[in-house]
């Protein structure tokens, strides 16, 4: 994002976590409330990024392993003679999906709780910041009128 | 090649597989021989009658032909075959006419990867237009969703007027110039190199010998194969506009339009060099009988976003964007935030409930109820999206939502939800009647605070979601009559039962995304239950339709007329139950899309006239009177 910009910028989805990173603009006269908001958002972003990147990586890896073990059981190779990757059909993958979901259930529960908490705090802070800004603007308007 | 409209001097070879068991003169497999044939140095022959998947000339640095594995056919490893640079990006395709053609799909996926239009000297020949990019994206989607390439093509390509908004076909182009074709694309139309899409004649039997043509690149005017078709340089791209968008109104019917036979333009057959003439390739073109306007509609219980044309988004996706709210974008953003199409669906089910109520029709009440329901639905959907940002970004279906893309801040989303929900519920409570308002508020609560968190906690969310979807018609009914009659419950029951085949069929194809995203859905954890429930509720629909006349909502013609469609969906439900595969789930899903509006329509036409019931009871009159009192003057 350009240096002179006064807004936050949001980027393309991350390769691992599929989340879009945000670069926050730090205004020179940032109030403590605004700073809290920005830091909360940055922290939330980092947490989410960590979680999903790890989670997706684990998913991909376990999927590979599953495919490999199933193919092995069937007596096929991971890659056939022409170099193409062999895949399993949807029904066979269904077992894996079910397994993966139940394995990660706890992790998701924990993440859910954290995400809801963070989401509410951030939105609430945003509300506060917006309110303060609006009041400030009104005061400024009154002064200038 | 009859009816073919590919015009490209590059397109060249047509080769067919020799009949099974043929021993080729040079020994080895047919695929390897084709690979060799691809070399300009050798003349080729065509034999046999079946086309076969062969090779993809990849845009790889070493320009090798990498034949695709094809089950049941000898496959070749032919690393030695090298091709001249100018062949890079060209495609040799064929299709084995079997339903099990995963390898073919790989090939198609591979070929789509080479969408870089790389000319012989490495420069871009064309910059794919937005439409071409969309075409490509659409085709990728079709590939993912179809059971095999044949279906993917049928999904993907639809006949259309050339130059019409959905017509694409791509091929490697030497240049655009072309004349004489009455249907030409403007030069700005998207062209993607190396990809040929052929319409297959839908003969009803997939075992019919394949109608694909192999196309090889002509290198430097040297004609290679036994037979080639000299096309005009004009290319024309066909694309099946598979819009994954929601239905705007539940009563829309799928439009049926046959594939147009591609006009054959300026086609010549030539024999090259000293190759003996061979019989022409069979090239029946397909005519699919219906252009399925494939739309993905989620029930009120589930959420779906409309996937707007990927072209704009794929470009945007790769850029950094400023988080700044632009006022002229706002309506679109809010529409997507509130899932406006789904909301429209909800409103129409509510109005169906209103219409079915046995009271004289009151327009103001109807409009107020619809508006209130719509606002409530917008609010609920916005809150739902607000809650689900990181999960949505990880699922393919939902990753283009406004909150995920940062087009709107969470605060604004909440404010918007509040500014829709509060007036909506107030409108319902004060303008219609308190019961409807209460139902609306309850529904919002159920959807946002029960269904949305439950999606990640237990599979019972589907049942909760079904209730969420069932409430709008009940709301419509209570808006009209002011009380919860058996009729309201029946209508709600019909919608409740409908949700299950609809959603279960849909979720069958999304298992991977659900599993990775951590959603607890029946299709992932209890697949057998998923299918059982879907079937059970299809049958329940039949039962409920029969109960309708008993409760004096409709005449006895209703169960009779609705029986065929109910039986059909039950049949599809049974197929889904038994086969448990992609195609049956899709069939069931798409059936559910038209089944509901039809059912409601039939119900409405069979509605028992109010006049017949006037002597029926004070109760109704009383309700009606009460409803009238509560309405604002």
From TrEMBL, chain A:
<dbReference type="GO" id="GO:0097193">
    <property type="term" value="P:intrinsic apoptotic signaling pathway"/>
</dbReference>
<keyword id="KW-0999">Mitochondrion inner membrane</keyword>
<keyword id="KW-0472">Membrane</keyword>
<keyword id="KW-0809">Transit peptide</keyword>
<dbReference type="Pfam" id="PF10231">
    <property type="entry name" value="COA8"/>
</dbReference>
<keyword id="KW-0496">Mitochondrion</keyword>
<dbReference type="GO" id="GO:0005743">
    <property type="term" value="C:mitochondrial inner membrane"/>
</dbReference>
<comment type="similarity">
    <text>Belongs to the COA8 family.</text>
</comment>
<dbReference type="InterPro" id="IPR018796">
    <property type="entry name" value="COA8"/>
</dbReference>
<protein>
    <recommendedName>
        <fullName>Apoptogenic protein 1, mitochondrial</fullName>
    </recommendedName>
</protein>
């Amino acid at each position: 994002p350009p240096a002179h910009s006064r807004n936050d910028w949001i980027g393309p989805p991350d390769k691992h976590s599929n989340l879009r990173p945000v670069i926050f603009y730090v205004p020179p006269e940032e109030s403590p409330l605004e700073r809290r908001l920005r830091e909360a958002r940055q922290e939330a972003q980092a947490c989410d990024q960590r979680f999903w990147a790890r989670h997706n990586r684990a998913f991909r890896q376990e999927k590979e392993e599953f495919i490999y073990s199933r193919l092995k059981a069937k007596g096929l190779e991971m890659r056939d003679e022409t170099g193409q990757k062999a895949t399993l059909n949807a029904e066979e993958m269904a077992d894996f999906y079910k397994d993966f979901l139940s394995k990660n259930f706890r992790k998701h529960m924990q993440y859910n709780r954290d995400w809801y908490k963070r989401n509410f705090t951030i939105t609430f802070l945003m509300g506060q910041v917006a309110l303060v800004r609006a009041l400030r603007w009104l005061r400024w308007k009154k002064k200038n009128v | 090649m009859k009816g073919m409209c590919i015009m490209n001097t590059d397109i060249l070879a047509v080769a067919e597989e020799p009949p099974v068991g043929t021993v080729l003169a040079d020994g080895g497999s047919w695929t390897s021989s084709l690979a060799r044939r691809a070399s300009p140095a050798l003349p080729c022959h065509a034999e046999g009658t079946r086309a076969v998947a062969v090779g993809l000339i990849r845009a790889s640095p070493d320009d090798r032909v990498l034949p695709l594995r094809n089950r049941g056919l000898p496959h070749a490893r032919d690393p030695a075959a090298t091709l001249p640079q100018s062949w890079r990006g060209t495609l040799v395709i064929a299709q084995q006419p079997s339903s099990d053609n995963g390898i073919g799909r790989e090939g198609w996926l591979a070929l789509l990867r080479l969408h870089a239009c790389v000319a012989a000297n490495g420069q871009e020949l064309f910059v794919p237009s937005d439409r071409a990019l969309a075409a490509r994206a659409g085709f990728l989607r079709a590939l993912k969703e179809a059971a095999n390439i044949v279906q993917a093509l049928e999904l993907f390509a639809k006949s259309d007027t050339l130059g019409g908004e959905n017509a694409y076909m791509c091929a490697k182009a030497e240049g655009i110039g072309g004349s004489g074709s009455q249907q030409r694309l403007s030069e700005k139309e998207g062209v993607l190199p190396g990809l040929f899409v052929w319409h297959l004649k839908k003969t009803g039997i997939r075992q019919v010998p394949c109608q694909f043509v192999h196309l090889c690149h002509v290198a430097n005017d040297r004609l290679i194969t036994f037979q080639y078709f000299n096309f005009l340089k004009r290319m024309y791209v066909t694309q099946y506009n598979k819009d994954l968008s929601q239905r705007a109104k539940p009563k829309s019917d799928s439009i049926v339009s046959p594939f147009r036979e591609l006009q054959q333009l300026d086609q010549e057959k030539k024999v090259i060099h000293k190759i003996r003439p061979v019989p022409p390739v069979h090239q029946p073109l397909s005519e699919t009988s219906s252009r399925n306007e494939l739309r993905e509609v989620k029930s009120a219980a589930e959420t779906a976003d409309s996937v707007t044309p990927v072209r704009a988004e794929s470009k945007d996706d790769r850029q950094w964007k400023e988080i700044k709210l632009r006022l002229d974008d706002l309506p679109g953003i809010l529409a997507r935030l509130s899932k406006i199409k789904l909301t429209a669906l909800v409103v129409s089910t509510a109005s169906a409930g209103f219409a079915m109520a046995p009271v004289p029709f009151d327009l103001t009440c109807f409009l107020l109820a619809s508006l209130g329901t719509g606002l409530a639905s917008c609010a609920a959907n916005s809150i739902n999206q607000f809650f689900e940002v990181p999960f949505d970004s990880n699922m393919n279906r939902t990753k283009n939502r406004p909150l995920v893309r940062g087009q709107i801040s969470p605060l604004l989303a909440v404010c918007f939800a509040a500014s829709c929900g509060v007036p909506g519920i107030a409108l319902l409570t004060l303008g219609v009647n308190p019961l409807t308002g209460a139902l609306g508020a309850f529904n919002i609560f159920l959807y946002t605070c029960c269904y949305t968190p439950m999606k990640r906690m237990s599979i019972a969310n589907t049942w909760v979601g079904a209730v969420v979807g069932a409430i709008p018609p009940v709301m419509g009914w209570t808006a009209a009559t002011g009380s919860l009659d058996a009729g309201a419950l029946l209508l709600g029951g019909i919608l409740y039962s409908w949700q299950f085949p609809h959603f279960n069929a849909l979720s069958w194809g999304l298992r991977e995304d659900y599993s990775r995203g951590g959603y607890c859905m029946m299709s992932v954890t209890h697949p057998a239950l998923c299918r059982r429930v879907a079937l059970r509720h299809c049958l329940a629909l039949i039962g409920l339709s029969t109960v309708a006349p008993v409760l004096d909502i409709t005449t006895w013609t209703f169960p009779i007329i609705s029986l065929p469609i109910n039986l059909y969906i039950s049949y599809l439900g049974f197929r889904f139950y038994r086969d448990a595969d992609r195609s049956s789930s899709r069939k069931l899903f798409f059936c559910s899309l038209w089944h509901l509006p039809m059912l409601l329509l039939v119900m409405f036409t069979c509605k028992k006239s109010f006049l017949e019931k006037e002597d029926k009871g004070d109760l109704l009159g009383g309700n009606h009177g009460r409803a009238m009192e509560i309405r604002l003057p």
